[in-house]
Structure of DUF3078 domain-containing protein:
Amino acid sequence: MKKVLFAVALFGFITAKAQDQNAVAADNDTIGPWTKKGNASLLFNQSTFDNWIAGGENNISGSVGINYDINYKKGPWTWDNKFIGAYGLVRTKNSSFTKKTDDKIEINSVLGKQATERWYYSAFLNFKTQFAKGYKYGTDENGAEIRDEYTNFMSPGYLLFGPGMLYKKDDNFKINLSPATSKITFVDKNFTLPDAAYFGVDEGKSMRYELGFNASAYYKVEVWENVSFENILNLYSNYLEDPQNVDLDYQLNIVMKINRYLTTNLSFQTIYDDNAYRGFQIRQVFGVAVNYGF
């Protein structure tokens, strides 16, 4: 459980700090019971060095992202859907390959029927994978850079679903608890290795099934004027194997609005999944982005 304290504490601090402030929502398109809102962004960075004594490597990088919500609310029923997509590349002068800085497809869907004022009987679905191939990099005996394909679209792919209870204050603050969550991990069986599990999937197989407890939380708030924090937290414990090893996925997206189209964006994500890597995976992206809301 110690492995999840950092993300839980950070999520709790931001929630407590901003709980008494009123969040300022983005412009919504409302058609009957449906509410839609989204944002597309383009982030670009470039660095050039010429006779720079302190050192440096010419590089160019960019990423595109989309964050789209479509929610339904009518009578006792609520249905919240979120799509997140991101893809980024970097090219450096001394590298033989263009490398990924981001690659993500994620779909979250929660259907609820009202039980009390803010609690709902729920059924949820979460799907994650990536757009393109991923590589492990190294050097050959001559010192030349080489790479080996390691991941691809749907390798791995994750599907979680199950019944539970949803607490929903509004579209910007909700928690879903599911004590009977099925988790299916999909892989290309050609990537599996002898005597080693590939994202928890045994050699020659293309999927792995788990049954466990899932907790997910979403909180978005405008902490200061034109500065919004979006927190997405997912925790999963597998009843069938090592339930004490809790999988964690925490995302923090900070958007500081400059004007209608320009923002400063900071994205932070940490993942702990001992089937993929026995340690914390950390990703951070910071830059000025061109945004389009729709």
User: Anything to note?
Assistant: The chain has one helix and 15 strands. The longest strand covers residues 207-224. Helices lie at 5-18.
